[in-house]
Write a structure and sequence with these properties.
The chain has seven helices and six strands; from the N terminus they run βαβααββααβαβα. It starts with 9 loop residues before the first strand and ends in a 13-residue tail after the last helix. It has 202 residues and is an alpha/beta fold. It binds flavin mononucleotide.
Length: 202
């Protein structure tokens, strides 16, 4: 795995698994931390966002401010999910790594087969081939053999499989605490400082 440079942008993509709030919170924290983010989301992600957060987004023209109403978006650049002219479609555009949060079973399958049918799949393909960090945040239960085998393949290809599976041992009291638990684990993968959860032993 290549050395991460904290000056490079981070790719954040959102797909149609349950857990839209994880993506929203992750992006809020990255914006607060002034981290340069390159992002896109799938049409299914907009459906889940509508269902879970009651925010209506047009998948063909996403208005990011509606998804992140509290955030300063000056550090976030957005591309359409079909736009292969986006810098993240090419390995020559250097990044700090990529996160798919949440990651649907469908996108996990496309990632491990190199399907590249949209910009999310292509950017994941690029991160694997360039040996850059790729963090997948699946949310499904129960897991079929297909899911488990795809996760195995993703891990074998070099990705980090980080299920949206919050722990309760920090004294979680609210849904926000559980969301922050998962977001904290994602940020830790990129050594991004945060105060979202107390560290065990501190
Ligand atoms: C409300 C809602 C919740 C969903 N939850 C999940 C889920 O938790 N995990 C999953 O893998 N797919 C889930 N799906 C199905 C995916 O959205 C669907 O497989 C879609 O094709 C994924 O496309 P994408 O990977 O391009 O985003 C959900 C769909 C909807 C509408």
């Amino acid at each position: 795995m290549s050395t991460m440079s904290s000056d490079l942008p981070l790719v954040v993509t959102v797909t149609g698994a349950s857990g839209a709030r994880y993506a929203q919170r992750l992006l809020e924290v990255l914006a607060e931390s002034n981290i340069h983010v390159l992002m896109t989301m799938s049409p299914a992600a907009t459906q889940v966002i509508q269902q879970e957060l009651e925010i209506q987004l047009d998948p063909n023209s996403v208005e990011l401010q509606k998804f992140l109403p509290e955030s300063d978006l000056s550090t976030i650049q957005y591309w359409d999910y079909r736009d292969y002219f986006s810098p993240i479609a090419s390995g020559s555009h250097r990044t700090r790594g990529m996160i798919i949060c949440p990651c649907s079973g469908g996108t996990m399958s496309a990632v491990v087969t190199g399907a590249s049918r949209n910009l999310i799949h292509r950017a994941a393909d690029v991160h694997l081939k360039e040996r850059r960090k790729l963090v997948l945040v699946p949310r499904e239960t129960p897991l079929s053999l297909v899911h488990l085998e795809n996760m195995h393949k993703a891990a074998a290809a070099g990705a980090v499989v980080l299920p949206a599976s919050p722990g309760f041992y920090h004294g979680a009291k609210t849904i926000d605490d559980l969301v922050d638990f998962v977001v904290a684990r994602i940020l830790d993968q990129f050594e991004i400082d945060h105060q979202l959860t107390k560290r065990w032993g501190d």
